[in-house]
Amino acid sequence: MGTFPWKHRIGMASSMKKRQDTTIIDIARLAGVSKSTVSRVLTDAPNISKDARERVLEVVRQTGFRPNHLARSLRSGNTGIVGLVIPDIANPFWADVARGAQDAASDKGTSILIFSSDWDPDREARHFRALLQARVDGAIINPVRDSLEDIADFGIPLVLIGSSAGRFADLPSVGSNIEQGVAIGLDHANTLGLGLPALIVGDAERSARLRFVAAVKAEISLRGSATDNLIVEDGHYTVEGGRAAMERILASSSKPTFIFAANDLMALGAMQAVREAGLRCPEDISILGFDGIPAGEVSAPGLTTVAKPSRQLGAHAFNLLTEKRQTAEHLTLPCTLIERGSVRTAPPLSCAI
Amino acid sequence: MGTFPWKHRIGMASSMKKRQDTTIIDIARLAGVSKSTVSRVLTDAPNISKDARERVLEVVRQTGFRPNHLARSLRSGNTGIVGLVIPDIANPFWADVARGAQDAASDKGTSILIFSSDWDPDREARHFRALLQARVDGAIINPVRDSLEDIADFGIPLVLIGSSAGRFADLPSVGSNIEQGVAIGLDHANTLGLGLPALIVGDAERSARLRFVAAVKAEISLRGSATDNLIVEDGHYTVEGGRAAMERILASSSKPTFIFAANDLMALGAMQAVREAGLRCPEDISILGFDGIPAGEVSAPGLTTVAKPSRQLGAHAFNLLTEKRQTAEHLTLPCTLIERGSVRTAPPLSCAI
DNA sequence: CGCGACAATGGGAACGTTCCCATGGAAACA
DNA sequence: TGTTTCCATGGGAACGTTCCCATTGTCGCG
Predict the structure, then answer these.
(1) Global pTM value
(2) Tens digits of per-residue pLDDT, B185-199?
(3) Is B73 part of a structural domain of the chain?
(4) Distance from residue A219 (CA) to nucleotide D1 (C1'), in Å?
């Protein structure tokens, strides 16, 4: 017993047959019990004599045996793996969501298969297929499209995550409270006497855009202002997109002094455009972001933003996936305001003079 | 045929027995061939009649059948999954590495299991166990410790990634060329007449720190200066750590005008400290980073930095894992200089006056 | 003392696939 | 026409586990 002579394998030709060196049967033989008993010990099943359990555990420890998860999964139907399909793991917001899910999963001994869809339906579809074939126990998905007919009958537990998640009543979801976030953002701006914002928003076909714009309009209406002339500039969900959108706004006849971006990256891009145009933020133009990514902390001025609870989003999504209720639950987590320096805190010039 | 009536499963009790509805045997029956033939078709094996292949594919398409990856993996020994163990997926540098690996993997139909070790040996060990049990085809690892005895005989192909990766001669590795990166960084500084840098570096126990400091000293020596009085301030690999380190430097008697940080986050933290101390960057203090994370783009001033090829790092690591050579290969990818605004380009004041 | 209940265990089937070997037939060659 | 070769196919074993059922022994209780 002890070490086994045949456990070396340095390097792998991809077609090399991998045979597991030690199996549950070897353990059984060494411990003088049946494979059933070993299995019971390893799965913490009831009705095992203390003696047998200890003998088995001792052999397991000495041999360094690890049960083959594949065989276990094949037989039991549970893989201990869940899928996570997000737009882009390199996007700090989604990376944070992933981290939250990872931590929650790690606590329960579950591993996470992460995919980046790049907002591309084809890539997304490929990833879905990969998930299904890997027989994951469930998946957390930020759907690219708003039509989910094809994934509704996935046959595996699903949790939707993100702004558009709540739109599918029969699927559990986790999202941040956009309306509340917009409210506290505009509330803050209002307190500072900032007036109506110009909006920089993302890709038109995503429902997140609609929801953000609608929330802003609702909030403005609530305060008694008209929303007809609201400036809304579309762009890509990136720094570059935000910069381009801001440049277009600056080139237009409208001269807004308050920008509300639907996403921090765009807000930061807008901030760059403002600076490059020779204007100052926040003195000339206030910028409010939406996300709460770490990069906003290091910009100058620091980005004042409405932070989504990204990490908690991921953690709750995972928990929702496992602690399955009877009915689809819809979690909406509140946003928080992070005040840094990109919003003008002094009263507007027109008042100060 | 067409849709199957029994494919519904809404919600999952975790102990519910999951039996696959359609198997290769059903396909065989429907297509009027044997399961062997179906298997051959699905694995693109040779020696299949055109007729049989088409019949099988037709049935597969109509039923929407997907082979069970678990069973396939169990029998063949290949899971089509590789592991990736990095310090933190929420760290933009590592997120980018992960993305590079993901893209490379996606091209070959491989999925990636991502773990965050948080530089914690215990967490790392847990993740290693998870990888082994999941029977991944291989793993890309940024090792927390420099002692790898325990993972050397993992029995699965391994590729090390990161600064300390090359230290293990018998394991293939991918890393960025720190020495060359330091060289182009200091070269740039030298061209601008910046003089000797003060260093802000990370955790002392990581070999990355040693390597960075050594490279800087070597480069300075090469230029004929002494390295004895080089200021080296330790800190955590975070914005906060960089800020704290910079505050300590500012509080000390030395008054450096050029900071070279071993990592962008620390550089950005240092920039904040400089600003908060009422000094200007780059006029009073130049700051040079090392990483090339996107956040450096949106700071003010933009962070001039030596960029590591993060995404390529991940991609090459994956490729190294699959296109296995006989001997362990050590890839070293070059860094590039990104000039933004955090390094003073005008000659020093003492000269200008 | 007999009998049911239950704890502890073993053996075989099952999970869904790939791999190996055997077989039949057609094509190629003498 | 007989023999060899090779293509196409089928059937069973194997992968390493968990699940199910049967068996044994022990205890408690009437």
Answers:
(1) 0.88
(2) 999 999 999 989 999
(3) no
(4) 95
